[in-house]
Every structure is written in C-alpha cells, then in structure tokens.
Design brief:
Distance between the termini: 24 Å
Largest sheet: 6 strands, antiparallel
CATH class: Alpha Beta
Strand content: 35-45%
CATH architecture: Roll
Radius of gyration: 14 Å
Number of strands: 6
Strand order of the largest sheet: 1-2-4-5-6-3
Length: 136
C-alpha cells in the first residue's frame, strides 16, 4: 500500500494541490482526504463550488484506484463523475471518503461522500474510472 505522504508529494504542483486537497488515510477499505473551503474552492457568491466538489470526488476515486493497482503497469482515468449536493459550506474544511463498489479488470466504481467539519453530509458522488495497461 502506498503511503499518504508519497501520494501528497505526487500531487504537488497539480490541480489537486492548487485546490488544497490533502490525503489523510489510505486503506484497502477506502481513501480519505480533506479540502479547504476558501477562495480556491468557492464560487462568486461565497459557497463551495459544485465543480470543486466533483473535482474532489474524482480525485479521491482516481487516487483510490491508483494506490490499489500496480501503478507501474496501469494508468487510471476518470470516465464519469456525478454528484448530488444536499448542503453547502462557506468556510472550513470538507472531508471526503471514497469506498470502492466495483473492482473490475477495466473499470472501477467508487462511492464518494463529502462532509462538512460538523460531519453533515454535503454531497454524494459516484465515480467510474477506466483502467488501462501502460504500453510497453
């Protein structure tokens, strides 16, 4: 299993780090990360942007597939992400938890839940990843 510090280092200088996403736990059962609600992730009215939430969800799921595969041999690409936003936030930190619901040879499916810092559910997302063998 790849360590959290290695994944956070891998994500430096990418959109993931620009959004302030930090991975906090990686296990075979799932993956957890945080994302700030600040000027990088809010829409102009001051609320958490739905697009930032979906980017957070896709990031959790993609990294989840990446760490559970032999990443020397495989690439992971997000193929679909959908979300239902129940609530929003204006500040603080949101927590994301991704759990794998399908582990196929060419696709992985993930259920991702996003919570505010009071552990109230903000969004429920589904992510499908395509798994491709690297060309030799």
């Amino acid at each position: 299993m790849i360590e959290v510090d290695r994944i956070n280092k891998l994500c430096e200088n990418t959109m993931i780090s620009h959004l302030g996403i930090r991975f906090t736990e990686i296990t075979k059962e799932g993956i957890k990360a945080t994302m700030p609600v600040d000027s990088r992730t809010r829409q102009p009215m001051g609320y958490l942007h739905g697009g930032a939430t979906l980017a957070f969800a896709e990031t959790l799921a993609s990294v989840g597939s990446y760490v559970l595969l032999n990443n020397d041999d495989y690439l992971v690409f997000g193929a679909g992400v959908s979300g239902q936003h129940q609530k929003t936030a204006t500040d603080g930190i949101v927590d994301g938890i991704a759990v794998n619901t399908h582990w196929g040879d060419t696709t992985h499916c993930w259920e991702v839940k996003i919570y505010d810092d009071k552990q109230k559910l903000l969004s429920s997302c589904l992510v499908t990843n395509v798994i491709k063998r690297k060309k030799v």
